[in-house]
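Hi W., the adenosine-5'-triphosphate complex you wanted:
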Amino acid sequence: MSKIRKIIIKNEEDTRAFGLELAGRLKPGDVVALIGDLGTGKTTLTKSIAEGLGITGVITSPTFTIVQEYEEGRIPLYHFDVYRISDPEEMYELGYEEYFFGQGVCVVEWADLIMELIPENSIVIRIGYGENEEERIYEITEDRNNEYTGD
Ligand SMILES: Nc1ncnc2c1ncn2[C@@H]1O[C@H](COP(=O)(O)OP(=O)(O)OP(=O)(O)O)[C@@H](O)[C@H]1O
Ligand SMILES: [Mg+2]
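Structure:
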């Protein structure tokens, strides 16, 4: 059984703290699937994950390419934004398996559009808007290999 952890992010500083903490415990081969509407902060969170991995270059929204690669951190980061994918077939064309099952960390914005391709042991973060302008609700399913959390 996978457990869903729900946390309230109060502002962008909380998003950054969350991203830095997550980055600190990511391992090669991890996939972080981000699900949330426009402007919920998927790219903002990805920037903090990148920072936490020690990537110093600017992280931009991969608008015209589906994946952007950053090799200078503790672990390579592959940042996907699949918003413009019209057919999961396009993921095969770019050889997504090399990334998802490789030795880097993948962060996937709009993962819900390709959910059938997202590995089962991914960290799934659903982001919703909160009550205040900068508030976000994170629902995190982290059901990774051998990390049995009890009944
Ligand atoms: N708690 C928060 N966490 C992240 N971003 C926040 C927060 N509060 C406000 N924001 C603002 O919300 C916006 C989030 O934009 P961002 O590009 O990260 O969203 P996105 O989910 O990647 O959008 P898209 O679906 O277009 O890719 C930014 O302008 C950011 O300043
Ligand atoms: Mg984005």
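The chain has one domain: 4-142.

W.
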